[in-house]
Specification:
Layout: E1 8-12, H1 17-29, E2 34-39, H2 42-51, E3 57-61, H3 67-74, E4 79-82, H4 89-94, H5 96-117, E5 121-127, H6 136-155, E6 161-167, H7 177-185, E7 190-192, E8 198-200, H8 204-217, E9 223-226, E10 230-232, H9 233-240, E11 246-248, E12 260-262, H10 264-267, E13 270-272, E14 276-279, E15 295-296, E16 303-304, H11 314-322
Parallel strand pairs: 1-2, 1-4, 2-3, 4-5, 5-6, 6-9, 7-11
Antiparallel strand pairs: 8-10, 9-14, 12-16, 13-14, 13-15
Helix pairs in contact: 1-8, 3-5, 5-6, 9-11
């Protein structure tokens, strides 16, 4: 957390579940000069202000589509965490123009204002849905990744470093499967789309800790991917509501049976850094910078939820649920 001491941090989409938890962690474990929360919803901002009463917090109403407002927001900022996005798959499918404006053009706006203002470090949050996307949400996040990474070329002589963090389907955030299962439990039946379905699992604490570590280590241009376990949705259902009958509804449009975090095409320029995987840029701006202790993965390496080497069983899932741990963003597809 030392990288945040005395710094001013801006979090776009800061009223979301990640933004709330990230802000609490910063204020509790670091000594930032200020944390600026940038979002569109004044109600969520007022609720967050009541939950987190700290004089270092600043609340800025704004939209990542509005470049002029972003320019004002990043003035004097040292670190930007870009978490703002339209995340719900059905909403993105029904409102594609809006998804593009927020998730793609919004990411470009954030990158450009960071470069123009000389913000030293900026990191954007992405999702496994960006890997071989099967829906518009994933496609927009893939574009956002590419824009943010390649923006390092546009930085030129500016001091700005830009990187991305890509992590797995987050099972306890708004619209995801745990709240759905809990709601369905009283009816005596759970719905699951397919008995074979698997997902990656990451807790809110883990997501925040990973982003913090990436910010402290980034050199600009990296796509950081955590090493996280997989779980089977059927086992999650058993952990949430033991013994209840399950009705299978079929895979929905834009939904995958399994999720991937690294494809074989990306494996050619992916390193195993021990604590995470790092997908390096394929372009010359990377300049041969070294990641200490990192080694190349096999050329046919695939990091997918069904081929993972680490799994959570029913007992482990029950333990996490019993501990009260919430799960982190971004959740884009309800898998139950």
């Amino acid at each position: 957390m030392n990288v945040f001491d005395g710094r001013t941090i801006l979090v776009t989409g800061g009223t979301g579940s990640f933004g709330n938890h990230f802000t609490r962690a910063l204020l509790a474990h670091a000594n930032p000069a200020a944390v600026r929360i940038f979002s569109r919803d004044e109600l969520k901002q007022s609720e967050m202000a009541r939950r987190i009463d700290d004089p270092r917090l600043r609340f800025l109403i704004g939209d990542v589509r509005d470049r002029d407002r972003l320019r004002r927001a990043v003035d004097g900022v040292d670190i930007v965490v870009h978490a703002a996005a339209l995340k719900q798959v059905p909403a993105c499918e029904y409102n594609p123009f809006e998804a593009v404006r927020t998730n793609i053009l919004g990411a470009q706006n954030v990158a450009e204002v960071c470069i123009d203002a000389g913000v030293p470090r900026a990191v954007a949050l992405s999702t496994d849905k960006a890997v071989s996307p099967a829906n518009l949400y994933g496609a927009t996040k893939l574009c956002a990744e590419r824009l943010f990474i390649q923006a390092n070329v546009y930085a030129g002589a500016h001091q700005t470093l830009l990187s991305c963090v890509r992590y797995g389907n987050v099972v306890g955030s708004r619209g995801s499967v745990i709240p759905l299962f809990l709601d369905q439990a009283s009816s005596g039946e759970l719905t699951v789309t397919d008995e074979r379905m698997t997902r990656f699992w990451i807790t809110l604490d883990q997501a925040v800790a990973f982003v913090v570590e990436c910010i402290s280590r980034m050199q600009g241009g990296e796509l950081f991917i955590p090493k996280i376990p997989s779980m089977r949705v059927l086992e999650l259902a058993e952990a949430v509501a033991p013994g209840l009958p399950i009705r299978y509804t079929g895979i929905r449009p834009g939904e995958k049976l399994h999720e991937s975090l690294i494809t074989p095409e990306e494996a050619r320029h992916t390193l195993d850094a021990g604590w995470c995987y790092v997908v390096e840029p394929e372009h010359q701006f990377w300049g041969g910078r070294q990641i200490p202790g990192a080694t190349p993965v096999a050329e046919d390496f695939v990091y997918s939820s069904d081929r993972n080497t680490e799994w959570l069983d029913v007992d482990a899932l029950r333990g996490l649920l019993a501990s009260g741990q919430r799960i982190a963003e971004p959740a884009a597809i309800e898998v139950g």
